[in-house]
Structure formats: structure tokens, C-alpha cells
TrEMBL record:
PANTHER family: AB HYDROLASE-1 DOMAIN-CONTAINING PROTEIN-RELATED, ESTERASE_LIPASE_THIOESTERASE DOMAIN-CONTAINING PROTEIN. Residues 32-245 form the AB hydrolase-1 domain. It comes from Azospirillum lipoferum. It comes from the Bacteria. This is Alpha/beta hydrolase.
């Protein structure tokens, strides 16, 4: 009988087919995609980005238009399509609505919610916010333009959004904010990615834009790994180290 000669290439193929495969197991997660919230843009994430970049992560920040939830999800998927490996998808505030849907993309290995909404299917931002209004919030802080875009009244901006930032920084944010289409806040969410992918949530305990109790309630419902920090809604600018640490925690957890 002739000796069996099993080609090395076929042997390797057999092993690969026998072993379970997952994106997280195939490559470490070293990409981070960040989705900002309403009444802001991605520039406020510079400190978080710098911290992550110094740790070897490739960071992309989505500058979504805030014209509709669908447009913002599409903008996020556009950036995700450019990633060369698995990514952690991060969302702040309204950005949580966006990543819950965009997170179903195959590039996404984990979700991180930062002082953010974590909707279930059919829930809108307006509906969720109405369940637990913010205690002590300034009445009529959110204004509307004639063509249906919403913004935070500049005199109320610091108290509602960035109370722990230097006054000059909060004032600059107030006067450089991105207006959001009213319809983005009333559109029902689709199937949330947190039902099929691991998620983390950072609760800002001094938040005056989203009730911290609501942040915690949504995070627990989603089964997110919850962390908390005493910070305003602009926690990414006020406590960038804490935000970056949670993103790293998520990336490392899905890399093993």
C-alpha cells in the first residue's frame, strides 16, 4: 500500500473548517468608530481620539448630518465600510439611536453607549426621553427653527449640556452646535444591534440632557456592561480618560 500523503495546504484547510470562527477570534479589535450626538459635532471627541490613538487604535469619527435617523445611520455605515477589521462602534446621546441600528453591520464587534439612548425596536428618542424627564431641566431649553430643526438655546446650553466644562468652552459649543431635524427625534428605531452583540454603557450621573436613571434603565434592559462617572452630558469632553477606558475595555473583551 502506498503511504498516504495529505498535502499541508489541505491539512490546514481541514483544521480551519473544524475550528469555530468568529470575527473577534480572527483579529484583535483595533478600530473605533465614534458617532456624535445632537447639538454637537465630532470635534469634541478629539481628546478621546488622541488617547485611543496613542494606545494603537485607529479612530474614525462620523460627521453625520442630523437630517434624519436614516441619513445618520447611512453616514455611519459609510464609515464602517472603510474599516479593515472588526470595530467598536461608539455613540453619544442621540448617537445611541444611530449605533443601535448601524451596529448590525458586519464590521461591528461591540457597541459602546456614552450617556446615550439605547432604544428597543419601535421606540423613538422623544418617547424615551418623555418617560423620565430630566430633574431641574430648564423649561423650553430646546428651540425650533421655522423649517423644523432643533437646537439648544445658547443661554441654557452650559447647564443642560456642559456644566463641568470651562465657561469659554461651553460657550463655544453653544455657538457651534449642529441643529438636528425634528424628525430624527420622532422616528421609531429598528431592530437594535444590542440584542445580538455585546454592549457597554457609560452613565453620566450629573447629566442634565438625559435623565441618568433613564440611561441606567436602558443599559440594564439591553444587558450592557454598565459603568458610571460623575460628569455632565458632555462627558466625552469633561472626562475623556474615563470614556477612552471604557472603549478599550470593550475592544479588549471582544478580542479574546
Amino acid at each position: 500500500m502506498l503511504p498516504c500523503r495529505f498535502p499541508a495546504a489541505l491539512f490546514g484547510l481541514a483544521l480551519s473548517l473544524a475550528a469555530p470562527w468568529s470575527p473577534a477570534a480572527a483579529a484583535p479589535v483595533k478600530s473605533v468608530v465614534i458617532v456624535h450626538g445632537a447639538f454637537a459635532d465630532g470635534s469634541g471627541w478629539r481628546k478621546v481620539s488622541d488617547i485611543l490613538s496613542a494606545k494603537g487604535y485607529a479612530v474614525s469619527i462620523v460627521q453625520q448630518p442630523l437630517t434624519s435617523l436614516g441619513d445618520d445611520v447611512a453616514a455611519t455605515r459609510r464609515v464602517l465600510s472603510l474599516q479593515t477589521g472588526p470595530a467598536v462602534l461608539v455613540g453619544h446621546s442621540y448617537g445611541g439611536m444611530v449605533i443601535s441600528e448601524a451596529g448590525n453591520d458586519s464590521h461591528v464587534a461591540a457597541l459602546v453607549y456614552v450617556a446615550a439612548f439605547e432604544p428597543d425596536k419601535g421606540e423613538s428618542l422623544a418617547e424615551l426621553a418623555g418617560r423620565r424627564p430630566v430633574t431641574g431641566a430648564a423649561p423650553d431649553a430646546v428651540k425650533a427653527t421655522a423649517d423644523g430643526y432643533l437646537y439648544l438655546d445658547p443661554p441654557a446650553f452650559a447647564g443642560a449640556f456642559a456644566a463641568d466644562l470651562p465657561p469659554a468652552d461651553a460657550a463655544f459649543l453653544a455657538h457651534s452646535q449642529v441643529f438636528a431635524a425634528k424628525g430624527a427625534f420622532t422616528t421609531p428605531a429598528g431592530d437594535p444591534a444590542w440584542k445580538s452583540k455585546p454592549s457597554w454603557a457609560l452613565v453620566a450621573t450629573a447629566d442634565r440632557s438625559i435623565n441618568p436613571e433613564l440611561e441606567l434603565e436602558m443599559a440594564r434592559r439591553a444587558g450592557s456592561h454598565v459603568r458610571s462617572v460623575e460628569a455632565s452630558h458632555a462627558v466625552y469632553a469633561a472626562k475623556p480618560e474615563a470614556v477612552a477606558a471604557l472603549i478599550v475595555e470593550a475592544a479588549e473583551a471582544v478580542s479574546h
